[in-house]
What we know:
It is a single chain. By secondary structure, the chain is of the alpha+beta class. The protein has one domain (5-140): Homing endonucleases (Endonuclease I-creI), CATH 3.10.28.10. Helices cover 34% and strands 19% of the residues. It is built from 4 helices and 4 strands; from the N terminus they run ββαββααα. It has helices at residues 31-40, 67-77, 85-97, 112-128; strands at residues 5-12, 19-28, 46-49, 61-66. Strands 1-2-4-3 form a 4-stranded antiparallel β-sheet. Helix 2 (67-77) packs across helix 3 and helix 3 packs antiparallel against helix 4 (112-128).
Amino acid sequence: MDGEGSISIVRVAEKNHPRYFLALNVSNTSKTILDDMKQFFGGIGSNILGRVRVSGRKPVWQWTVKEYEAGAIIERLLPCLRLKKTQAILALEFLEKRKPVENQKRRFGVCNSELQKRERYYLKMRELNKRGNRETSPRAGRPKKLETNV
């Protein structure tokens, strides 16, 4: 997970306001490895064939799990994570502190303060996931203590 995966909070633009959700992705050129991971975690998620970005290279497969299923997997992986431990803690906090939406179809049940809180989580995760981020770089050693104050 630390080397081939990502933990992210995704923001999707919608008509009335953005929607935010947790996503766990693992990429590999071996579909078999991802199929094994999917089975190990109870068959949840989906394996998708990604596009070949550079000609002559193998295609990349991606296993994706979202929301509370992703949270359950992250909880199981948390003791083993080194580089992505900070992102894992933030992801679990995002799920725990997020207020449920009253009306799932129209999403009118989310107030502005809740949307602002979700946006702060999204931005914090985005900062943690930047390429070359000092906090998650292998040279940086252990991840820094998380200061969410979200």
